[in-house]
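G., before I forget:
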Amino acid sequence: MIESTPVRPATDRRTMFDCRQAFAEQLAALARVDERVVAVCNDSVGSSNLAGFRDEFPDRLVNVGIAEQNMVGVAAGLANGGLLPFVCAAAPFLTGRALEQIKADIAYADRHVVLCGMSPGVAYGQLGPTHHSIEDLSWLRAIANLPIVVPADPAQTRAAVRWAASADGPSYLRIPRSPVPDLFGPETTLEPGRFVPLTEGDDVTLVAAGTLVWRAVEAATLLRHEGVSARVLAAPFVEPLDEAAVIAAARETRGIVSVEEATVSGGLGAAVAGVAGRYCPTRVRVLGVPGVFAPTGDVEFLLRYFGLTATGIADAARAVLADAAR
Amino acid sequence: MLTSSRPQVEQWQAFRDRVRDAGRDERALLLATASDQIRRDVLTMIERAGLGHVGGDFSVTDILVTLYASVLSVAPAEPDWPDRDRLILSKGHSAAALYATLASCGFFPATELATFMAPLSALSGHPDRTKVPGIETNTGPLGHGLPIGVGTALAARLRNSPARTVVILGDGELQEGSNWEAAMCAGHHRLGSLTAVVDRNGLQQGARTEDTNALEPLADRWRSFGWSVAEVDGHDHAALAEVFAVRSDRPTAVIAHTQKGRGVSFMTDRVEWHHKVPSRDELALARAELSR
């Protein structure tokens, strides 16, 4: 079916948001009603947007300075003492520098600590691969007992904070900085192991996480103009995965395109391919950063460079369908 | 999750009362006898498992016995009591000594010690808090305990709890940089409720600390991070108890001078006993030396 309205880039008609704002607002709202809530950071008050939290709850912000291993260990100790720590730090340093603390002190020790990785993916753009957090999903998916939440918009970010507070166990929230439009209503909730369907479709499935969900929706619109119906699934939980939705997509559509602002080695796409391969083998095309360090460039340049745009996603979907037709 | 042993808890409480009421000499004898028992338990655990870290177990035994018999405020029948003192064994490879000590307090039945490192046992080679009551955090990789201790001390301050935190560190472990991140943080926050005990036996897995990556001047290093420092014979129970009784408005580092393999002549201060398993003849000799 072909729509008559012209397709325009989303940025032309939508207001875009940095989800760190929604994160900080929800954290402060939570702190007002739950006195266990504390924020722990590594000189990242600015980059985690915690100035408001600090001003409202000066005693409940623990800034350990530039020391990520200590930061995560301190959070484990605060949880031992009955508090509910939200560790807020740039995702590359939180996950890369403190990976063993995340494994041993938080996940293995089963501490109710919420690890909040700020500005993930290639959000730091021109600052380069040292500051890109594209490995975090691969690293953390390898750790047991650690749900991974990748919200796609401000409402889902707020829902992620509420869910993590209520979860009674560890979690990792990947809080987007790259601008995204509103996709979900304010009452949206999250359920572990559940994708959120955004469009119906039975030709091809687009499964996306975080900052790329809205681009997958745009890709579906592009495809619809060509008579291709694409099922779009948002994956707020990369771990645990919605295996049933993956199996249904593999059965009911001719192939799957996954898309995320992460390496292709072990994130959402690898998880989806693993489930599909095990239960219902189909064509899976994994979009992300393909085993290279990014060149210099701003966020939009890098996303285009790696094909992480509506056009790139639609191209991948066409390729999947062409393969299926062979 | 294991559960407490009520008769053993009562026995431990009676022992604590005797230690408290005894004169100095009698107290020293009571605690030394308790340490011998822990060391014999550790030998039996290692014998059964065919694995273990006897050297570090024996260097830390007198510290653990002193803390649980006369210093720490804990409730083995209520291991999650919010105002309990926190003992964090950062040198998690000395798990056997900690398990034997916790069992002696009644945190779980002493019969469980026989399962040390056996398939599906709660008593892994390194401690797991989700399986063993009295374990505050999972340790094993080095350099993890002190940051967590900073967190428990900060939590006590935020919650107005009297709980104190004691972190036991291996000396070789201090080569891990995370300790110094935590030391700086504790000094900055003047965490007077935090004590770090350095099990200063001078040996790490492969060689002497001073021949590997020297720690001295160790006391000065702690002082320069804003800590009070006490040095003590780590095998003198009475001296340890006196040091632990001193409170400061700053975090305190207790440098406990110890010997690896302490208590058994042929293991004492010998690097090869880091994780060597004694033979049948060596076990008999060791047991004889530990029966006073």
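The longest helix of chain B spans residues 24-49. The CA atoms of residues 134 and 170 of chain B lie 20 Å apart.

More on Monday.
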